Sequence to fold (157 residues):
Amino acid sequence: MDGGVGRLIRIGQWLNGDGFADFEHAFVLVDDDHLVEAQPGGAELLPLSAYRDHPQLWSTGIIPLTGEQRGAIVAAARGYLGVPYSFADYAALAAHRFHLPVGPLIKGYVASTRHMICSQLVDQCYQDAGVRLFADGRWSGYVTPADLANRLTGLTS
Fold:
């Protein structure tokens, strides 16, 4: 992501233990020309061309999916249109990382409000389709863009 938001996400990923990862955003491709991505005001359907000039990683072939699973991922992504995210989503990540006793409370709040940051939205769409991206069974709210990038490059499973 460009600008101050991208820099803040990079810093947040570093604080979360991901280092200064090169990827600060994630989205679900829903057809050849459109994607669903989380935004503070609510997840949006946008043209893929919005990211034409940005580096991208794709899951094609890395995570084997059936046609049914692909359809379910797309349906889930479209179902999350309008779902926002907030500071609490980042607070949940930080509390988890630093083992703060408020972590479960924040996680419960985020889960109850259905807020989702971009990487959480991607992971949740896969989970809704019955696909676990991470073998450790982590809550999707603890998934960062760097986690997804590491999964796609084979650094984690």
In short: The two ends are 25 Å apart (CA to CA). The first helix runs from residue 3 to 15. The chain has a mean pLDDT of 83.
